[in-house]
């Protein structure tokens, strides 16, 4: 095995329980996004576009769909003879079965994978953010600054700062303090959950953390504070551009709506940084004579006979005659029946909304409505 | 019984009627239906019928065809055993106008000798159809035929089924028989073989002229036709591109059209086929057109009754129209400026 400069470890085992029924059967990184993609496509495309071709993907929660989606990584050009994608599920040892109890323990249990590649640097990623980022620039920053660990940060609005892990830094971007969800934030630089470690430092601290029985084995809660305590050099890498945590139904809907904004910083149509995705190979979308479409993102295999406005439609969606869809996200293979009115909703994969159904919030400001098979059944029972 | 089939796609024919679209490509590689090329139909039919070994015999201008097919991965033909084969002709002086060029096949006789499949399906590359070939094979065997030609409404579709041993005999005896093609062999009234004609009821049109190309493309806008071509259980496979979903702006108005991914549409589109990565500017009106990949139509343009080949650029405010009876082809890469109108 050749030595690698940088190996990525992608944490994709989270449950994403704030996405409610969307993650009942699939892991959060596999949740559909943007009319064509799954959330993990963004991180994996960033890896391949950044020239990082060795990626370990740590899975745990509901991995069936995610595993088959990742396959051998050919979608992202990550089917490599040397390196490529390796799915790393929890495994059993002679004495016990060890689930990944935290982000750090997940990496710790795969130290063998990293030992095999002997990288100089390890890039830790999570599979639940929407962004385009050249990790090479962050790595160069890390090397230039002579850091032990670099954490990518983004400026968030001050009023939202208390929802994030906030990095307090000096002028040289050196991190002096880390505060998890501070009630009185001193800064508005939020951690994006993207870390670069010198491999030797990471190994040492993961082993140290493993021996600590009181630890949660989490990067944010344990490893970063420990590194700060030990006066390691922690650098904040200021990222500029679109970045969105799509951890809730509301933020997932917002991020989809962002794509329709012409001024959106996330350019899906920028071919120099393509987002790769498993292509379903369906016929072009058919727009019937009576169809009316504006301000929309629509994927192949859709059949549209009704009205679509400011919405995102995934592959294989059918909008039947007289139906109207506004400000909504319609996931793959869903059918919106004749004469339906859908507003500010997410319709889950394969759901059939019965003819004439009206799904819209009472007031414009009300939260987005998530429609699943179960919620359709419930309303039919009533 | 070994009921396996070998697939042969004959792309050697030259169609004078398609010249405008085949200056840089073979008929097999003509873009069709927004995201396909004509060869996708026959190739997908073969793969969907369980054929695992497909050989393509191209003649001229096959760069774009090779680029399209690649390793065969999109058709699941990147196999360790069998898979996709590509056999350009070493030299071929005779102009071929009929499907199933025996001389071309004979140049690659080793391939036929080595193949283990008992039957061979030979088909042209420019027919638009979605056909299950298994019932054809069953019928051929049950009827005890030697050479079967597939026909629709009495006319040949350029699809033939024979035993491999029969094909080898035809190749071996082609000097004596005088047969140049499978069509000759299947239509010789004095043939020593049992010749049969299999009637196909489904939608199938061989594209051999611009008029047919235009008419069949426009047929895709009729749900009763596309429902016969694009079936979930037998998908037409093609080279996939990582294009984002089509984007319609606030000013877009699109009716009775097919649109492929990667399109950015800000104008009005009616009765048209819009391929991958096409841009249509604000205020532009596109009617009864086939717009191929990556063409750009500027703001406030008017285009009607056109077949716009790949990477054509119509600059802002330009009007280009043809009569509905004679749709005009705009050649690949053409740039139409403010002065050029027809």
Strand residue percentage of chain B:
25-35%
Mean pLDDT of chain A: 94
Gyration radius of chain A (Cα, Å) is 22 Å
What is the helical fraction of chain A, as a range of percent? 10-25%
- Shape call of chain B: elongated
The CATH top-level class label of the largest domain in chain B:
Alpha Beta
Please summarize the sheet with the most strands of chain B. 7 strands, mixed
Rg calc of chain B: 21 Å
Strand order of the largest sheet of chain B: 5-4-1-6-9-8-10
Derived from helix and strand composition plus strand pairing, the structural class of chain B reads alpha/beta
**Span between termini of chain A:** 62 Å
Number of strands of chain B: 27
Largest sheet of chain A: 8 strands, parallel
- Indicate the CATH architecture of the largest domain in chain B: Alpha-Beta Complex
Low-confidence stretches of chain B: none
Q: Give the DSSP E fraction of chain A (strand runs of 2 or more residues).
A: 25-35%
What does this structure look like?
The complex is a heterodimer of chains A (382) and B (342). By secondary structure, chain A is α/β, with parallel strands linked by helices. Helix content of chain A is 22%, strand content 29%. In chain A, the strands form 7 sheets. In chain A, strands 17, 19, 21, 22, 24, 25, 27 and 28 form an 8-stranded parallel beta sheet that branches. In chain A, strands 5-4-1-8-13-10-14 form a 7-stranded mixed beta sheet, with helices on both faces. In chain A, α2 links the parallel β4 (54-58) and β5 (84-88). The mean pLDDT of chain A is 94. Chain B has a 7-stranded mixed beta sheet with strand order 5-4-1-6-9-8-10. Chain B has a 6-stranded parallel beta sheet with strand order 12-15-18-21-24-27, with no helix packed on it. In chain B, strands 13-16-19-22-25 form a 5-stranded parallel beta sheet, with no helix packed on it. Chain B is elongated, with a radius of gyration of 21 Å. Chain B is an alpha/beta fold and 342 residues long. The mean pLDDT of chain B is 93. The longest helix of chain B is centred in the first third of the chain and has 10 residues, at 39-48. In chain B, α2 links the parallel β4 (53-58) and β5. Chain B folds into 2 domains: 5-229, Spore Coat Polysaccharide Biosynthesis Protein SpsA, Chain A, CATH 3.90.550; 247-336, Hexapeptide repeat proteins (UDP N-Acetylglucosamine Acyltransferase, domain 1, 3 Solenoid), CATH 2.160.10. Chain B is built from 10 helices and 27 strands. The chains are: A alpha/beta (382), B alpha/beta (342). β17 (292-298) of chain A pairs antiparallel with β12 (246-248) of chain B.
């Amino acid at each position: 095995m050749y030595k690698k400069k940088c190996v990525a470890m992608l944490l994709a085992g989270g449950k994403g329980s704030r996405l409610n029924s969307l993650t009942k059967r699939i892991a959060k990184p596999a949740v559909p996004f943007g009319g064509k993609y799954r959330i993990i496509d963004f991180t994996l495309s960033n890896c391949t576009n950044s020239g990082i071709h060795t990626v370990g993907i740590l899975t745990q929660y509901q991995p069936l769909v995610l595993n088959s989606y990742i396959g051998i990584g050919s979608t992202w050009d990550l089917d490599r003879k040397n390196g490529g994608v390796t799915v790393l599920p929890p495994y059993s040892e002679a004495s016990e079965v060890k689930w990944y109890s935290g982000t750090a323990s997940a990496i710790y249990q795969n130290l063998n994978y990293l030992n095999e590649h002997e990288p100089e640097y390890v890039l830790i990623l999570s599979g639940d953010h929407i962004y385009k980022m050249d990790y090479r620039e962050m790595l160069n920053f890390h090397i230039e600054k002579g850091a032990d660990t670099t954490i990518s940060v983004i400026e968030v609005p001050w009023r939202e700062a208390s929802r994030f892990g906030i990095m307090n830094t000096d002028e040289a971007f050196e991190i002096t303090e880390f505060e998890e969800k501070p009630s009185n934030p001193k800064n508005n630089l939020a951690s994006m959950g993207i870390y670069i470690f010198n491999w030797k430092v990471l190994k040492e601290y993961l082993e140290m953390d493993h021996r600590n029985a009181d630890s949660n084995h989490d990067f944010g809660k344990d490893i970063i504070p420990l590194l700060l305590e030990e006066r390691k050099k922690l650098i904040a890498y200021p990222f500029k551009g679109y970045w969105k945590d799509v951890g809730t139904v509301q933020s997932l809907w917002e991020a989809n709506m962002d794509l329709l904004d012409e001024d959106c910083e996330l350019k899906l149509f920028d071919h120099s940084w393509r987002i790769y995705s498993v292509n379903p190979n369906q016929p072009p979308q058919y727009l019937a004579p009576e169809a009316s479409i504006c301000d929309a993102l629509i994927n192949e295999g859709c059949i549209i006979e009704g009205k679509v406005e400011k919405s995102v439609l995934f592959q294989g969606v059918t909008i039947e005659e007289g139906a109207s869809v506004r400000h909504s996200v319609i996931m793959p293979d869903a059918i919106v029946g004749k004469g339906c009115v859908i507003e500010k909703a997410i319709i889950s994969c394969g759901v059939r909304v019965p003819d004439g159904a009206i799904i819209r919030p009472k007031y414009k400001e009300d939260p987005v409505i998530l429609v699943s098979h179960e919620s359709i059944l419930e309303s039919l029972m009533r | 019984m070994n009921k396996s089939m070998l697939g042969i796609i004959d792309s050697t024919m030259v169609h004078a009627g398609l010249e405008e679209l085949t200056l840089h490509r073979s008929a097999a590689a003509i873009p069709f239906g927004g995201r396909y090329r004509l060869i996708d139909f026959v190739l997908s039919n073969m793969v969907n019928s369980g054929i695992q070994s497909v050989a393509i015999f191209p003649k001229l201008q096959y760069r774009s065809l090779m680029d399209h097919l690649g390793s065969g991965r999109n058709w699941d033909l990147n196999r360790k055993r069998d898979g996709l084969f590509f056999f350009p002709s070493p030299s071929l002086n005779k102009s071929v106008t009929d499907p199933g060029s025996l001389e071309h096949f004979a140049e690659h006789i080793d391939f036929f000798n080595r193949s283990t499949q008992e039957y061979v399906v030979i088909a042209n590359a420019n027919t638009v159809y979605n056909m299950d070939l298994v019932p054809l094979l069953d019928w051929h065997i049950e009827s005890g035929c030697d050479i079967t030609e597939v026909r629709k409404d009495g006319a040949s579709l350029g699809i033939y089924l024979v035993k491999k041993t029969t094909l080898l005999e035809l190749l071996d005896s082609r000097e004596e028989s005088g047969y140049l093609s499978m069509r000759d062999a299947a239509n010789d009234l004095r043939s020593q073989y049992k010749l049969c004609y299999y009637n196909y009821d489904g939608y199938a049109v061989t594209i051999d002229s611009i008029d047919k190309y235009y008419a069949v493309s426009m047929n895709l806008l009729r749900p009763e036709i596309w429902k016969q071509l694009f079936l979930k259980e037998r998908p037409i496979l093609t080279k996939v591109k990582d294009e984002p979903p089509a984007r319609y702006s606030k000013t877009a108005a699109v009716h009775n059209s097919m649109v492929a991914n990667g399109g950015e549409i800000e104008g009005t589109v009616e009765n048209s086929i819009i391929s991958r990565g096409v841009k249509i500017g604000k205020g532009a009106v596109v009617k009864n057109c086939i717009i191929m990949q990556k063409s750009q139509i500027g703001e406030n343009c008017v285009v009607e009754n056109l077949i716009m080949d790949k990477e054509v650029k119509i600059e802002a405010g330009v009007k280009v129209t043809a009569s509905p009876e004679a749709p005009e082809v705009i050649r690949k890469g053409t740039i139409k400026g403010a002065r050029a109108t027809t």
